[in-house]
Amino acid sequence: MTVDELTRPVSQRTLGTETLLVLGLSLGQSAVYALVSLVAKLTATGGLAKQTAALNTSASARPYLDLTYQLLGIFFVLVPVLLAVHLLARDPGQPARTLGVDLTRPGSDLARGAGLAALIGLPGLALFWAAAHLGVNATLVPAALPHLWWAVPVLILAAVQNAVLEEVIVVGYLVTRLRQLGWRLGAVIAASAVLRGSYHLYQGFGAFVGNAVMGVVFSLVFLRTRRVAPLIVAHTLLDVVAFVGYALLPKSWFGWL
Q: Are 78 and 161 in contact (CB under 8 A)?
């Protein structure tokens, strides 16, 4: 192999294959499993409304083994993010700038993230309430870990993990690659939004719609600012409130889920 072959631009075919492989190792795979889970819930006794979708579940009855599994799960789920960053470093280069995850604007990123969390979170609660009453969502259990000292820290780490995985892969990486492949702006936004909604289908149709709308908003913000950092902040805040709130507050408060 010559030096010219090593340094020549990556072809669109290669970029397309790479994108499918990254999604197949991460949230594209999750979308397929979520669809199967939805079908299973729809065909179960009582239908979708009588089923439960539990997040952050225990992996072992032995507390420290459970903690080990939780931490390993968080780490390995983030490996596709490292892969995406590695591939962006090859093309187009400077992944921190491409994704907008550098520390050049911490105040702006935090403020925008908090604003986005409020913008998405309040209507999202209303949508979940409506979906639950219409019977188009399963009963959601955001946190099902045992009441141990490490539960809340693990839930916070899980929230950060979700935010980093989803915003880097579904927004930063996917939007960048689809634009490189020549997709039209509307198609790029739609693809990112539909993917985000799809891997939430295990919760029901309401979760699909809510997360797809969130995907449209987040894609537009990224295209305008070229920064994933505010999206990670917003997503982390939303999940921390959901996970930790459910774990610490009386369960009677969450009957509407």
A: yes
